[in-house]
Amino acid sequence: MISPHQKLTSATCGKTRPAQYLECCGTAGALRLRRRDREEAVALLPRNGVFNTAMGTRKPAPRPDLGHRLLPVFTAALLLAACGTKPEEEHEKAVVSVRTATATESNEQRTLQAPATVFPREQASLASRITAPILSLGARKGDRVNRDQILVRLDNRDLLAQRKELAALVTDADATLEKMRTGTVPSDIERAKGQVLISQAALSQAEKFYERRKQLFEQGALPNRDLLVSQTDLTTARANFEVAQRTLTLLEQRSSTRDIQIAESRLEQARGRLSVIDTQIAFSEVRSPFAGTITDQFVYAGDMAQPSTPMFTVADLDVAVARAQVPEPEAVGIQRGQRCALTPSDRTDSHFVGQISVINQAVDPVRRTVEVWCEIPNGKADLRAQVFGSLEITTGQLTKVVTVPTPAVQLEEGTRNGFVMVIGADKKAQKRPVETGAPLAGRLPVLKGLSAGEVVIVEGAYGMAEGTTVTLSQAVKPEATKPEAVQK
User: Fold this and answer.
1) Which CATH class is domain 99-108+398-476?
2) How far is it, in rounded angstroms, from Cα 254 to Cα 177?
3) What sign does the dihedral 274-280-286-289 (CA atoms) show?
4) Domains of the chain: which residue ranges?
């Protein structure tokens, strides 16, 4: 007898246990069971209008006694009918009508497709460098702006007043430095100069007096003692003159160098403070860093501008960048300069052609993808930022590749591998594992597993068992490769 845990297949209702089979198919279903299975099924026939509770299918319910009295009669009729059934009866196999196509061989471009999002080539979020009320706006959301165009004017009257004060300080420091360089000498320097003149005059007089006494001594009219006194006076006068000169030199050097350095430092401080105010005044005008379009606006006239709050977002969409996430195994053949074409989701009939500009050298650790940038000329602003689409990248040329219609291949999820149902000469379907490439305009290139000229099922192969006899309803003609779409 079949265990409750063993499977009992049936082409009629697909149940796995005799109790379930009888519940689904009724009394007639028991006729299709084997002899021992029929005995188990008979035990499950309705008693008092319900199934046997020993199998746990339904709970008993009170029924009229008439059903219980008719049970032996019903059982006998069922067994007699079962005896006349042939277990080896063969059922006629069904013939399935399908649509087919012939695998063709051609030269195709090797491409891959990946989801992509459009970004501007340059984008900046503008905020104020100072805190001040907004006086006026020079542009609004959606406007086209030029480089250095004023977008926001802030109230700067307090800064202008500070600038006037600092400009006066600069003028004063400059005049002081000029005065130190040209003119006024301190009193100690004047006194030193006077000492130099006095000592110089004393030295000159001592020299003359010494010469006269030396002549008299040589003539014998003057004793040697007086000559020695004159010589001593000359030496003293000469020493006093030298000391006065050195004192004047030291005073001039010390006073002029230090005072001029101090004056120059004060002038530089005043100029630096003035430069800071000029910079803050320049910050009161917020300008566009490049030509582009204002895509976001967060402030209006009268609002308080703050460094922590953005005011505008400016994007340069003259060149759009489609950033695609390419699966890691497929990114091997991508190189800079290769052709790429974007089909945006909002304009599926348009294709925008560009070139690969960036290939990320790091793999996303979560998605296992490589980010690839495709730069697309967008002078007419047909592409908008953040538009989603599909990016097709041409990575090479496929020579004599076998292609079939895309519906003919049943792919395994997340891979390029799958199978096709091939029709043999006996009109029976055969399952054939294949390896495919990237889609080519409604067709799939089959890299392994299929030859040109073989007939594959395009429609009707889903769930079909291998060896099923098929009949052709209509053959699908191979379509020519679509011409390249022209960028609008």
Assistant:
1) mainly beta
2) 16
3) positive
4) 18-83, 99-108+398-476, 159-283, 313-396
Three-state secondary structure call for residue 454: coil
By three-state DSSP, how is residue 350 classified?
coil
Contacts of 90 (CB under 8 A, 6+ apart): none
* CA pair distance 446, 112, nearest whole angstrom: 14
What percent of the chain lies above the pLDDT cut of 70? Answer: 75
Decide which of 3.30.565.10, 1.10.1040.10, 3.40.50.620, 2.40.30.170 is the CATH code for 313-396.
2.40.30.170
Q: Is the Cβ–Cβ distance between 195 and 264 less than 8 Å?
A: no
Helices and strands in the chain: count of H runs, count of E runs: 6, 19
Buried b / exposed e over 191-203, threshold 16 CB at 10 Å, is: ebbebbeebeebb
What's the pLDDT score for residue 231?
85
User: At a CB cut-off of 8 Å and minimum separation 6, what does 36 contact?
Assistant: 1, 2
Instruction: Give the list of residues 6+ apart from residue 118 with CB closer than 8 angstroms, or none.
Output: 320, 321, 322, 323, 342, 344, 383, 384, 385, 386, 387, 388, 389
Contact 130, 286 (CB under 8 A): no
The residues near 143 (Cβ < 8 Å, ≥ 6 apart) are 293, 294
Report the chain's C-alpha Rg in angstroms: 53
- In the three-class reduction of DSSP (H, G, I as helix; E, B as strand; rest coil), residue 64 is classed as coil
Locate 23 and state its tokens. Answer: 């519940």
Tokens representing 254? 């010390």
Q: Which of 41-45, 124-128, 382-386 has the lowest mean pLDDT?
A: 41-45
Give the DSSP letter of residue 87. T
Spell out a b/e string for 138-177, using b for 16 or more CB atoms within 10 Å of the CB, else e: ebeeeeebeeeeebbbbebeebeebbeebeebbeebbebb
| Model pLDDT for residues 22-51, shown as the tens digit of each residue | 444 444 444 444 444 555 544 544 544 444
Considering only 279-288, 373-382, 396-405, which range has the smallest mean pLDDT? 396-405
Return d(Cα 322, Cα 118) in angstroms, integer: 4
Q: Are strands 388-405 and 369-377 parallel, antiparallel or unpaired?
A: unpaired
Backbone angles phi, psi at 304, to 5 degrees: -95, 115
Confidence grade of residue 183 (pLDDT, cut at 50, 70, 90): low
Quick check: 127 and 310 in contact, CB under 8 A?
yes
Total-model pTM = 0.53
Distance set, CA 286 to CA 161, 300, 388, 417 (Å): 20, 13, 32, 56
159-283: CATH, from 1.10.3470, 1.10.287, 1.25.10, 3.40.630: 1.10.287
